[in-house]
Structures are given as structure tokens and as C-alpha cells.
Amino acid sequence: MTxxxxxxxxxxxxxxxxxxxxxxxxxAVKIELIERLAAAGLTVIEAAxxxxxxxxxxxxxxxxxxxxxxxxxxxxxPVLVPNMKGFDAAMAAGAKEIAIFGSPSExxxxxxxxxxxxxxxERFRPVCEAALARDVRVRGYISCTLGCPFEGDMDPLAxxxxxxxxxxxxxxxxxxxxxxxxxxxDTASAMFEAxxxxxxxxQLAAHFHDTHGRSLDNLRAVLDLGVSVIDTSVAGLGGCxxxxxxxxxxxxxxxxxLLDELGIESGINLDLLVDxxxxxxxxxxxxxx
Length: 289
Ligand code: HMG
Ligand code: MG
Prior knowledge:
It is a single chain. Helix content is 42%, strand content 13%. It is an alpha/beta fold. Strands 2-1-9-8-7-6-5-4-3 form a nine-stranded parallel beta sheet, with helices on both faces. Helix 2 runs antiparallel to helix 11. It is globular and about 40 Å long. The protein binds 3-hydroxy-3-methylglutaryl-coenzyme A (HMG) and magnesium ion (MG). 3-hydroxy-3-methylglutaryl-coenzyme A binds next to helix 1, helix 4 and helix 5.
């Protein structure tokens, strides 16, 4: 057992959370959400997405959000970028860290970003080069690592190969997504082990959606392997609009509880976090459970 002493939570609610909600909120509400999350102690908050507004209208105001955010000492605000157009827009809006996102699944890649897996890599390459040339850090996401709505089971070795490609392009961290929440502790561990055979576990993050209620069990399993970066979403909001069956990310509140139970310091003020969850659910017109 190599449980980490400290865990970094990457809060993806303002991006993954809001991209899948039928009701859009204003840029001012997004900014307030992000400020509240930072005040609650989150130090990495994925703040926006510079994708096509035809794909995700809910996040079309990413530039307004980024320019409206006050810089905070010790807090990072990465943004999602699919191509050079998104990269240029993110840079113009002042983003200092970006994330690219792909998958070894052809079916999901077509549905999500409208190209083949090979073409997606050729799209990411100039983005990474341009980012690294400006000292902008790049995170790499891999979707459908534990199962795909189009292709079913995923081969952990295919995930590992894709991770190596992203790492070789310069990604400092690889976030492994259970996009539709079909993983189990054994399959999650096997996939992380396959990737960790190629890339140090400290450079891997767990990005689990909770469709089948197993994300906390799966997180325990990968924490046991030494994973120390976990993606979460306040109030468990989230999902990928292009992955049929995807539901919310594991809730930040639940992960703070899990870390507390395991004696791992999260640095998060749970009361402020719960207030924030209630705030955004009210704005979205949904129940906070
Ligand atoms: P495309 O249609 O192939 O792109 O879409 P295109 O280059 O042919 O351009 C088509 C139109 O989009 C053009 O506009 C472009 O200007 C515009 P038009 O001439 O028709 O008016 N366009 C853009 N506009 C703004 N920003 C841009 C941009 N790029 C092109 N960056 C594209 C390809 C990738 C753009 C599109 O498919 C897309 O935006 N997809 C994003 C899908 C998405 O956001 N999915 C959710 C995020 S991934 C996720 O949630 C999973 C994750 O959480 C991990 C996990 O859970 O597994 C990360
Ligand atoms: Mg996601």
C-alpha cells in the first residue's frame, strides 16, 4: 500500500460540471462560482473551455470568465483547448495553463471532436508546441479509459500508449477519465497500473464520473496505488455531452470526506464548499443533494 500523504484536487465543476447542464448560467455566476471554490481552498480550478460554441454553448463565454477572474496567489485556472483556434483564444483571454483532451477510442473521438484518433494527435501537436514555447503548462486528458459508449471495453495498453504520446508531446500530467463511470476497483487499478508502467504515478490523475455510484470505491483503489491528483466537481455536476450515458463527476464534497476518512489532508473548508454547491445548484435550478 502506497497511499499518498497529500492529494491535489483538481476542481472541474466550472467546466465539466457546467458543460452538461441544460440551463446555462451567466459569466458573472461562473466567476462567482470559481471565486467561491478558491475561497473554499481549491487550488486548481478548471475555469473554462475554448471549444466550438456549436459543440458546447454553455461555455461559449470562456473569454469573459477568464478576463473577469482576479488572479489569486497559489491558485491555477487551467482551461480546455481542442485546437489552435481554441489555444489562441485562451491565450488572448490570459489563460496560463491549458488541457488538451483525446481518447484511444475512434468512436468517441469522432463524436467528441469530429476527427480520427490519428488526426486528433496531429491537432494537439501544434497546440503543445505553441504552449510550451510560451511556458504554458499542458495537461492531457484521456477519455473512456475504462469503457466507451461506442466501443465497449478499453484495452489498458491502448490507454497507456495514448498516455505516452501525450506525455511525449509535453503534457506534465495525464488525467485518466472514466467518462461514463463504468469502472470497478479492479479495472481501475489494472488500467492505472498499465499506464504507471510507462509514466510515474505522480504524473497521473484520476477523473472519475459517478454514473454507477462506484467512483469513490474506484478512487480508494487507485489511491492505494499512490495516485495523488483527483479530479472532482462541486455538487457532483458534470458529464460529457458527447458520451451517451455520462453523468456527473465524483463530487468534490464526497472526495473531501473520503480523504478525511483516510487521514489525507485536503486543505478544503467543507462548510464553504457546501455553500458553494448550494449556490450553483440554485443558479442551475436543480436540487442540491
Ligand atoms: P469541427 O466542426 O470539426 O471544427 O469541430 P472545424 O475546425 O471544422 O470548425 C467548425 C466551426 O467551429 C468553425 O466555425 C470554426 O471556426 C469553429 P464556422 O466557420 O462554422 O462558423 N471552431 C471553433 N470555435 C471556437 N473555438 C474553437 C473552435 N474550433 C473550431 N476552439 C471541434 C472540432 C474540436 C472544434 C469541436 O468538435 C468541438 O469544439 N468539440 C468540443 C467537444 C467538447 O467540448 N466536449 C466536452 C469536453 S471533453 C470531456 O468532457 C471529457 C473530459 O471531461 C474527460 C472525461 O470525462 O473523459 C475532459
Ligand atoms: Mg469529464
